[in-house]
Amino acid sequence: MAFDGLFTHAMVNELVNQLKTGRVAKIYQPYQGELVVTIRANRKNRALLLSSHPNYARVQITEQALTNPATPSNFVMSLRKHLDGAILKDVTQIDNDRIINLHFSHRNDLGDEEDMILSIEIMGRRSNIILYESGSKRIIDTIKHISSDQNRYRMLVPGAQYITPPAQTLQNPFAAKITEFTELQKEFPNYEVLAQALRSKFQGFSKDSALEFAFSMVTSSNVDEAITNYLSQYDASAGFIYDAPNGKLSFSAVQPVLTEDENVQQFNSLSETLDRYFYEKVQRDRVQQRGHNLIRVVRNELKKNRKKLKKLDQTMEQTHFADTYRIKGEILTTYLSQITRGMTEIELPNFYDDNKLIKINLSNQLSPSKNAQKYFNKYQKEKNAVKYVTEQISKTKNEINFLDNIETQIDLAKPEDLDEIKVELENEGYLKKNNNPKKRVKPVKSKPELFKSSDGTTILVGKNDTQNDRLTMKTAKKDFYWLHAKDIPGSHVIVESNDPSEKTIEEAASIAAYYSKAKNATKVQVDYVPVKNIRKPNGSKPGFVIYEGQKSLKVTPKAEIIRQLMV
């Protein structure tokens, strides 16, 4: 279900309950289009995330640790000037639309009280965050500046007059009478048709929420009660993540009725729901945004090495004629007396093949012995080539495996993990190092991902080679268990137990499969072994280990299991 008007209604209630009368303690912009306002309310600091991302626009309280950049943006500087220490007086929604207004009271430099509104418009690619004066409606600043060339209806730039988006001629369902819903239900008894009618008349229904509401009305023996119960759920503070009928993962503020119960996860709040739902989606976007240079380098190097390997394989195919050159040289040496200068070919008995005749091409410019020597030279050249090409094939395959592993790590990484991956690529010569000590920033050690199995056992996951080496070779005890997807690039997984249960091993194996290149496969073989059986060969690349005495099991990586076990 989308972040529609109904979900916005529910989120506003949650924010009022948790943040109203709180004081702004910190403001920063961790990523482009996203803002974090830390509000201290009820003796607790809560990070309010405001996102104008075209795909993930939303408002929620987040528990995710988001980076505070060293240099604040101009928008953040404006907000700090007008909202630092401000009191959140109220949180409101405009007509069940996807617009949330945060009403702040703030004293200016002269000590006069000012009322400010921080408005978050959740409208896809037109989403925006706008700070303006409550009385005069004068815009202080926006996270996205929209000029008159871009939008003739309204400008969203500092100093302009704030105008709300064009209003739709639709009713607020929370202000409507029950009879207005029942009349529609009588006119459209089919719930899918009724859903379309609901969206045409009432504000804030997405396709999914309209279908859920319509289905509840049509299948209930008491329609009035079904309407009241459905809408009242949006005043509660609970959230759900579920597999929608179309197969896609979705979220909702109400218990979904068009899906099986076993596919539904319930959470204590809407914000917790969104943290879980958007965790992987947003991380991927942030990694793509911050790590685009790393991704480009790795993909280019992979393409180059795969092309090189193809050429080496073709060269190796040609070296299969080496023994033929040697045989022809030996035959010519044996029958030199039968060869005269000027001949271009000759047929001679092949004593390596029951003396069957073999045709041998000759150069009419060379003597018989020189012709024989020519074949021996070709043989030696091909023999040397076999050794060189074999070495190059092995080296190129190692490079491809390394880069393939790095590509998987970038795919699994959080934004803060990218610095260590960058250092690894620099150390391996794929990126140029910055040798200026003043400009070179030492990366902060990132932490492995933390999980808890069903019985409470700690499971740690390294998400890059540096983490993998540190986790497996330095921090893990020798009697802990180590897991890895078999023969596939992926993460090192450590179970912090010397006698884990079968259930814990199975869950850790699912995690290892998910944090590998085979995360979308149906069956993945995972090896597991005590850490004491792991060895790292001298001179091997980061993250590479060998092991013995392992056991294996096959698992199916499932995102819902990962979400349930993640701490």
From TrEMBL:
Signal peptide: none annotated. The keyword RNA-binding applies. Keywords: Protein biosynthesis, RNA-binding, rRNA-binding, tRNA-binding. GO terms for cellular component: RQC complex. The keyword Protein transport does not apply. GO terms for biological process: rescue of stalled ribosome. It holds the Pfam family NFACT-R_1. One of its GO terms (molecular function) is tRNA binding. Belongs to the NEMF family. Associates with stalled 50S ribosomal subunits. Binds to RqcP. This is Rqc2 homolog RqcH. The gene is rqcH.
